[in-house]
Design goal:
With 421 residues, this protein is of the alpha/beta class. Helix content is 40%, strand content 20%. It binds pyridoxal-5'-phosphate.
Length: 421
């Protein structure tokens, strides 16, 4: 309270706020400061950017079942590392394995903190103080200062680059293998594409080479697609099962990208390989929390039924929403806004998957275009409660409805109308 009073006085002294004319107005100013001070730092926002997997906005919103699972586990004790049948110590790593087996066809699985951690663990396990072979066409930056070559070095391996930016051949890998080779890593080009005069070696060819030479092959998928989404115009992204069938020793993927679950790094592979990863002391430092396990288990369970997954997992529901349904929601939002005095139109727009997935896919969508100076509107909406983040196109602020969940439509209208009143 004292802090809020001081902040109110300071803001008036410094001229950043006009001096209140009455005691009531002073009270109001202190209440505003107090609300600002007591507001949590991490708070909900409405993502109207049209980018479904927006890393800055927290990537995948969780399915209701995952939120309920967190709620159920968070406030009490659980069998996190306790085997209830045997009455003895169990393993936190056991909880998602059966579901991952069922859904992806893997023999065994290990869940760590995120996909970057999964890669570090793989490199440390297979190639510590040894060499890792990577194609020059796959030395990618994922974003947020995450670069594949840095990860390799962090994992304690020497990076051996093969091929060129646009073309790498099987012979390039084969001739780079020495007795010191610990692993070959294939990185899925999840966030960009190379076209023109190109050649890359398939995961299947690399896996065959690895088997022949006794070298582990790690396939970093990143995106974490578990079911094909071709019918929604999202093609050419391998699923985890595809990657496993191609024979890599370990397949790594993110939990909070296309999978639509909590932040996690999922490692899939043969039992003997996963056992080695699990036994690495580094796994302890990269381990996941019980809340992640609860949320991931509940999300994975939805994949038992494709229709249920598409309906209940927000990321999949947003990606598979039809342009007609988005248009009708945009019209509803625009009509409600106009009723509250906000001038706007419905326009066709293009949304994207984000999260470094399907870099070339433009999903036809619809947006509410607000009348007014885009930069000013954008600033007001960032200060709204909840904040609404849109996208500026051709000098207009667009609120793309694809990345807004239908249950947020009312809150969107109310936040925008209040902020622009
Ligand atoms: C996103 C991505 C990663 C990193 O995943 P995080 O879960 O964010 O650590 C690694 N590799 C690829 C190919 C990716 O797309």
């Amino acid at each position: 309270m004292t802090t809020a009073v001081r902040a109110a006085i300071d803001s008036v002294r410094s001229g950043s706020r006009p001096a209140p004319a009455s005691a009531d107005a002073w009270g109001e100013l202190v209440r505003t400061e107090l609300a600002g001070i007591t507001r949590p730092s991490l708070r909900p926002v409405i993502n109207a950017t049209g980018v479904v997997l927006h890393t800055n906005l927290g990537r995948a919103p969780l399915p209701a079942a995952a939120v309920a699972a967190i709620q159920e586990i968070a406030g009490g004790y659980s069998n996190l590392e306790y085997d209830l049948a045997a009455g003895e110590r169990g393993s936190r790593y056991s909880h998602c394995v059966a579901l991952l087996r069922e859904i992806t066809g893997c023999e065994d699985a290990l869940v760590v903190n995120n996909c970057a951690a999964a890669l570090i663990l793989a490199v440390d396990t297979f190639a510590r103080d040894r060499e890792v072979i990577v194609s020059r066409g796959e030395l990618v930056e994922i974003g947020g200062s995450f670069r594949i070559p840095d990860i390799m070095r962090r994992g304690g391996a020497r990076l051996v680059e093969v091929g060129t930016t646009n073309r790498t051949h099987l012979a390039d890998y084969a001739s780079a293998i020495t007795p010191d080779t610990g692993a070959i890593i294939k990185v899925h080009r999840s966030n960009f594409s190379i076209t023109g005069f190109t050649a890359e070696v398939s995961a299947a060819q690399l896996s065959a080479l690895g088997k022949e030479k006794g070298v582990s092959v790690v396939h970093d998928l990143g995106s974490g697609l578990l079911i094909p989404l071709d019918e929604f115009g999202l093609r050419d992204e391998p699923t985890a099962s595809d990657a496993l069938r191609n024979g890599a020793d370990v397949v790594t993927l993110s939990g909070d990208k296309l999978l639509g679950g909590p932040q996690a790094g999922i490692m899939l592979g043969k039992a003997a390989v996963i056992e080695k990863l699990r036994a690495n002391p580094l796994a302890r430092a990269l381990r996941v929390d019980k809340l992640t396990i609860a949320a991931l288990g509940a999300t994975l369970a939805l994949y038992r039924d494709r229709a249920m997954a598409l309906r209940e997992i927000p990321v999949l529901a947003m990606l598979s929403a039809t342009p007609e349904s988005l248009q009708s929601r945009a019209q509803g939002i625009a009509a409600a806004l106009r009723k509250r005095g906000v001038r706007c139109d419905v326009v066709a727009s293009e949304s994207s998957v984000g999260g470094g997935s399907f870099p070339n896919a433009a999903l036809p969508s619809f947006a509410v275009a607000l009348d007014g100076i885009a930069e000013l509107l954008e600033k007001s909406l960032r200060a709204a409660d909840p904040a609404v983040i849109g996208r500026i196109r051709d000098g207009k602020l667009l609120l793309d409805v694809r990345s807004v969940q239908p249950r947020e439509d009312e809150a969107l209208v109310s936040a925008v109308a209040k902020a622009l009143a």
